[in-house]
Amino acid sequence: MKKEDINNWKLIEVLDDIELIEEDARDFLPCILNKLNVPTTKHTTTNREFTEIDWGKMKSYFKFFFDNEGEEKINEEAFKSSELSKKKSVIIFYDWNVPVVKVPVDLFIKDWEDFIASTQWETIMFSEDYELIMEVSRDYNLYSNFKIR
Fold it and tell me: What are the residue boundaries of the structural domains of the chain, listed by start?
């Protein structure tokens, strides 16, 4: 897939600032999770609280509800104050028909809500070195292995 084949509204908006790193997220994500020994839930459900990562089995995890009206700037400041701000980029997994992308961390922090919305409120993201992990569940919670808020 080439950049000109992308039809995700947010990615089109930032096309010149992102890097495509993998075309097939369906195979790439499980490989990364396995390689990093990240525990997964191994079940499918329509429950909005569902996460692919089994956060209860992680060494440590944090969670916050990010969809409170008027807290967009508070969350942006929380991202700016977190370990994520010290990284170069964020790797974002989209649906099967959208490639895995690498986004500069400052752009992600500035537009975090749009990036999450453009994944249809369900994604797993990593720092470029795969040390920091975040997952968004469809019930508008953001899970992470580092403190954001």
Answer: 21-41+49-144
